[in-house]
Amino acid sequence: MAWLQATIQADSAVAERFADVLMEVGALSATIEDALAGTAEEQPIFGEPGEPVDQMWQHSLINCLFAEDADVAAMVAMAALKCGLPLPQYELGRVEEQDWVRLTQSQFDPIRISSRLWITPTWHQSPDPAAINLQLDPGLAFGTGSHPTTRLCLQWLDEQIKGGETVLDYGCGSGILAIAALKLGAGATRGIDIDAQAVRASIDNAAQNDVSADFGLPDSLLPGEYDVVVANILANPLRLLGGLLAGHVRAGGRIVLSGILQEQAEELAAIYSQWFDMDAPVFDDGWTRLSGVKRG
């Protein structure tokens, strides 16, 4: 089995509407990407969880898949007519059937976090069996170790967990930070996420790594203080959750925050300095890690 793929250039004013109409007239899928991706003019777009992204790439590519016997020219012409647009130019190619599972797996190799900490998908052998290896596969929940925000938090845990610390991972996603803390020697560890699928993924991932953590939704978080609170979410929820997170850190305990763009670091550090003596920020590829010690 094979498919036909049309690649259509579109500007930001029409890309989403045109992609939707292509689906209406018979496309099997339609995705939008930055036409300048991989160049110096690539345009990053970020949005907060639960909030719509209110911008689109100025120069977009719409990639559409069609059935092998589809009349692509007629469908593209019909979509353009429905949108009131001139007939666009497009490139037409053929996509052969592949082993998509194997192809996807080939894109995820083991990730070295430090000399002793690796993230290893289950289909790979560990590059260093003597190291601490977290077995984690890409899934529905955020957090495989490949994103700078996750790496920054893992590196902090690797450097700072000495053994026995109580840990709260707020916004646990895949559970990777809670699991890493336990594998590094932490004591009682709790993970919280607003997404029930993330909680389920965290439970499954912890079992796969032979560690035991307590994962749940926010309403299951009871009052209590921890030695370490880590929150790898994004700037907007971190702004709103400052008091709540600070309330769960014991005096002399540590907070670790990520999911913060470099240009947001100063503002977030100022907010959390109400409760914490903040360390110097650490940056990785435009993202920031903030950490601090809670004052008594």
From TrEMBL:
InterPro entries in the record: Ribosomal_L11_MeTrfase_PrmA, Ribosomal_PrmA_MeTrfase, SAM-dependent_MTases_sf
Residues that, per the record, bind S-adenosyl-L-methionine: 150, 171, 193, 232
Lineage of the species this protein comes from: Bacteria, Pseudomonadati, Pseudomonadota, Betaproteobacteria, Neisseriales
Main location, first listed in the record: cytoplasm
Gene Ontology CC: cytosol; ribosome
E.C. code: 2.1.1.-
Biological role stated in the UniProt entry: Methylates ribosomal protein L11.
Location in or out of the cell: Cytoplasm
Gene (UniProt): prmA
Record-stated family: Belongs to the methyltransferase superfamily. PrmA family.
Domain of life: Bacteria
Segments forming a coiled coil: none
Protein name in the entry: Ribosomal protein L11 methyltransferase
Any one GO molecular-function label of the UniProt entry: protein-lysine N-methyltransferase activity
Record has DNA repair as a keyword: no
GO biological process: methylation
Pfam families: PrmA
Transmembrane stretches, start-end: none
Alphabetical UniProt keywords: Cytoplasm, Methyltransferase, Ribonucleoprotein, Ribosomal protein, S-adenosyl-L-methionine, Transferase
Gene source species: Vogesella indigofera (Pseudomonas indigofera)
Reactions the enzyme catalyzes: L-lysyl-[protein] + 3 S-adenosyl-L-methionine = N(6),N(6),N(6)-trimethyl-L-lysyl-[protein] + 3 S-adenosyl-L-homocysteine + 3 H(+)
Enzyme superclass (EC): transferase
